[in-house]
Amino acid sequence: MDENEEKKETTEDQPGQADPAAAGARAEEEASVLPPAQVRAVLEALVFASPQPITAKEIARVLQGVPREDWERELGELRADYARDERGLQLIEVAGGWQITTRPEYNDWVRELLDPKIPTRLSIQALETLAVIAYRQPVTLPEIIELRGVRSQGVVKTLLEKRLIRITGRKEVVGRPMLYGTTKQFLLHFGLKDLDELPQIEEFAEVLGEEVDVPGLRRAIEAPRPTEVPLAEGEESTDPAGYDSADDGQPPRD
Question: Which one has a higher pLDDT value, 209 or 173?
């Protein structure tokens, strides 16, 4: 056996020994095709241009030549940039993605620009009903009325029209009332990443920005669910007309 063959066998007999050429090729493949500053600029453009909060999956699809850990690091730096400067905009993680929005403290000015004649704020009754639905979902209209102590049909209709709540199905009890839950638009409206970010009701009342009945809402949210009569065996169970369980992609709440 000559010297070259002996060296070849020695190399093959040591599987833990890295091949410098292969290691270099892997490093080249993992290297970003863009410098950090440009990655950050591209991310800002993507977040700004996306009509909905842009997801990590969408970012990864566009930035195929940039390792995930690289663009995630630059996204964090971009968010820090917005937080450090006294800007009217902010980069937030909301509704399962990232979005550039106006800062809440400047919303009144923006509202005056976009639609000065039509009030966009919800009534106190609508805000209280929305809070009950958010914290007790899925919940039926009879349950909402019982918890709030007032009739709420008109308020629920308003919340549906504003796409802050949606019909999630029917409750399998006598009468099969519709169940209501919040939507992705609800998360966007209140700047929440998901339903797990719902704060204590006292904190949420501050976010609502109105004189809501906090003690009454706390009693409603913490009240035990009423005893109901289930459907008789063999009774048909169907979805409400027009209901689509994937109508807005909202993640379910545990």
Answer: 173
Q: Please classify residue 34 by burial: count the beta carbons closer than 10 Å to its beta carbon, then call 0-12 exposed, 13-18 middle and 19+ buried.
A: middle
User: How confident is the model over 135-163, as pLDDT tens digits?
Assistant: 999 999 988 888 877 777 888 988 998 88
Structure tokens at 90: 């902010």
Calpha distance 84→132 (Å, rounded): 36
Q: 64 with 72: CB under 8 angstroms?
A: no
52: which 2 tokens?
């909905």
Number of neighbours of residue 57 by Cβ within 10 angstroms? 9
Mean pLDDT of 47-73: 91
In order of their start, the domains of the chain are 31-112 (1.10.10.10), 124-222 (1.10.10.10)
What's the rounded Cα separation, in Å, for the pair 135 and 150? 18
Q: Whole-model pTM?
A: 0.53
